[in-house]
Write a structure and sequence with these properties.
- The protein contains 14 helices and ten strands.
- Helices cover about 45% and strands about 15% of the residues.
- The strands form two sheets. Strands 2-1-3-4-5 form a five-stranded parallel β-sheet, sandwiched between helices. It has a five-stranded parallel β-sheet with strand order 7-6-8-9-10, sandwiched between helices.
- The protein binds 6-O-phosphono-alpha-D-glucopyranose (G6P).
- 6-O-phosphono-alpha-D-glucopyranose binds next to helix 4.
- GO terms for molecular function: carbohydrate derivative binding; glutamine-fructose-6-phosphate transaminase (isomerizing) activity.
């Protein structure tokens, strides 16, 4: 068993450290050699005419894969300008979603076996949608039944709490967004080249975050004494906040909530009291001032704030918070692939500090094949 963990204490930690490799493998062979475009036509069969005809996209998934779908919505809308709705599968399948022949349904599933996701996908196909599956398991049920499959090459994921599968799903969305953008002509070659350049820099940037794990261990240990904490952010930072909060709940059993930073004042601010930890994601330039003012609001009510920010904002943000963790500079749409990593490590070390079974949390299963 020790050998399988390759010297790591837990599968989760091993899988967190495998992310640079998972990113590289998921990108491999999918980016044109000149670094100017992404073409997935060798793998996905949808014609360029079909891609041009898509009028809306539904992303459907459960758990962590749903959180990847929340980022996927922003990615596709900003790169390809197609309207996207993201739903949890157990809601989608029962709400008579409006599906037309030009609706593309994207299901996201690490295992490709989640019962609700599979049922939602079948329901969509019955209603005439084309389904593209983003999955980590080549021969899975979802992969077999979908019209198109985009595989995340994260390799087997053993820990119940998903890490490298989630972040590889983000990479799949970037590639898909670039593919759709090329066919639909929504990004210039210069823009696509810039995004691809930043995309291929992510694996090394994740490595540099992993080198700072010791700092995050300390943060996690002090947070582990609290009964409750909050994650806040705007835009894709809010999507990552939701994943960070889920991860922490799953393995540390500490209660936490993720909030859209601007929504705090409509209720949740009442829960902020002296010493309560708040993890604030602040990586988006156009939302920077707004999020900073939310950080100041929770600080003023006694919160202990850890900011996860960009190298560029670090010095300024530091003036308003208790602790800062910086991620390397990248494009705004790509920050989730970096900012999720410190949150994964915080969850891991919090669970470890509390003596829980990190890889096999109580009440949870790796793949939920019953409804
Ligand atoms: C379970 C796992 C989660 C996972 C979810 C969806 O709840 O514990 O980690 O995100 O299922 O799984 P899938 O295989 O469809 O991505």
């Amino acid at each position: 068993v020790t050998a399988e963990k390759a010297g790591f204490d837990h599968f989760m930690l091993k899988e967190i450290y495998e992310q640079p490799k998972a990113y590289r493998e998921t990108m491999l062979g999918r980016i044109a050699e000149d670094g100017q475009s992404v073409n997935l036509s060798k793998e996905i069969e949808m014609s360029d005419d079909y891609v041009k005809s898509i009028s809306k996209i539904h992303i459907v998934a459960c758990g962590t894969a749903y959180h990847a779908g929340l980022v996927g919505k922003t990615v596709i809308e900003s790169l390809a300008r197609i309207p996207v709705e993201t739903d949890v599968a157990s809601e989608y399948r029962y709400r008579s979603p409006i599906i037309t022949p030009d609706t593309l349904v994207i299901v996201v599933s690490q295992s490709g076996e989640t019962a609700d996701t599979l049922a939602a996908m079948r329901e969509a196909q019955r209603n005439g949608a084309r389904v593209l599956a983003v999955t980590n398991v080549v021969g899975s049920s979802v992969a077999r039944e979908a019209n198109d499959v985009l595989v995340t090459w994260a390799g087997p994921e053993i820990a119940v709490a998903s890490t490298k599968a989630y972040s590889s799903q983000l990479i799949a969305f970037y590639l898909l967004g670039l593919h759709l953008a090329r066919v639909r002509g929504t990004q210039t070659t210069e823009q696509m080249t810039e995004i691809i350049h930043a995309l291929t820099a992510l694996p090394e940037q994740v490595e540099s975050i992993l080198e700072q794990a010791a700092v995050l261990k300390q943060v996690a240990e002090s947070m582990s004494h609290h009964q409750s904490l909050f994650f806040i952010g705007r835009g894709v930072d809010y999507a990552v906040a939701q994943e960070g909060s889920l991860k922490l709940k799953e393995i540390s059993y500490i209660h936490s909530e993720a909030y859209a930073a601007g929504e705090l004042k409509h209720g949740t601010l009442a829960l902020i009291e002296d010493g309560i930890p708040v993890i604030a994601l602040i990586s988006q330039e156009d939302l920077y001032e707004k999020t900073l003012s939310n950080i100041k609001e929770v600080k003023a009510r006694g919160a202990h704030v850890l900011a996860v920010t960009n190298q560029g904002f670090e010095a300024e943000v530091a003036k308003s918070v208790d602790e800062v963790f910086s991620i390397p500079k990248t494009l705004p749409v790509l920050t989730p692939a970096l900012s999720v990593v410190p949150l994964q490590l915080i969850s891991y070390y919090a669970s470890l500090a509390l003596g829980h079974d990190v890889d096999k949390p109580r009440n949870l299963a790796k793949s939920v094949t019953v409804e």
